[in-house]
Amino acid sequence: MTDSSEAPGTPRIVSANREIAAGAAEIFELIADPAQQPRWDGNANLAQAADGQRVHSIGEAFLMENTSGGIRENHVVEFEEGRRIAWLPAPQEQKPPGHLWRWELEPVADDRTRVTHTYDWTDLNDESRMQRARETTADKLRASLDRLAELAETR
Length: 155
What we know:
single chain, 155 residues, seven-stranded antiparallel sheet, 7 strands, globular, disordered N terminus
């Protein structure tokens, strides 16, 4: 579905990457544990998540409270321990509207990892979310990467 106000050529897959001076397993723990996510969120959208929701496989879901007070249910659709995780967010107990957050980790050395963060709204079908999707730029993804690096590198 294409939003009629969308400019031609607006990218629907945005990503950013950087090398972080920490091991992949250590970085992955910060991503796969929803309780840690508000600490590195560069979109200033995540408020909190309950402890004990660490993701271990595809098919799991975790709950996150947004800064607006809404509860998001995140459905894990990709998972490889220490390497990749992706989820489709949705309002609690509703079908995901079609946007995806992905994290991919590639070890460069024992203590260095290239991390790629991607926001894919190719299949987004909720008109009320289109403006926010367009505002999720590579700079915002890079902000999450920078905050994640700061946490991982000082652990």
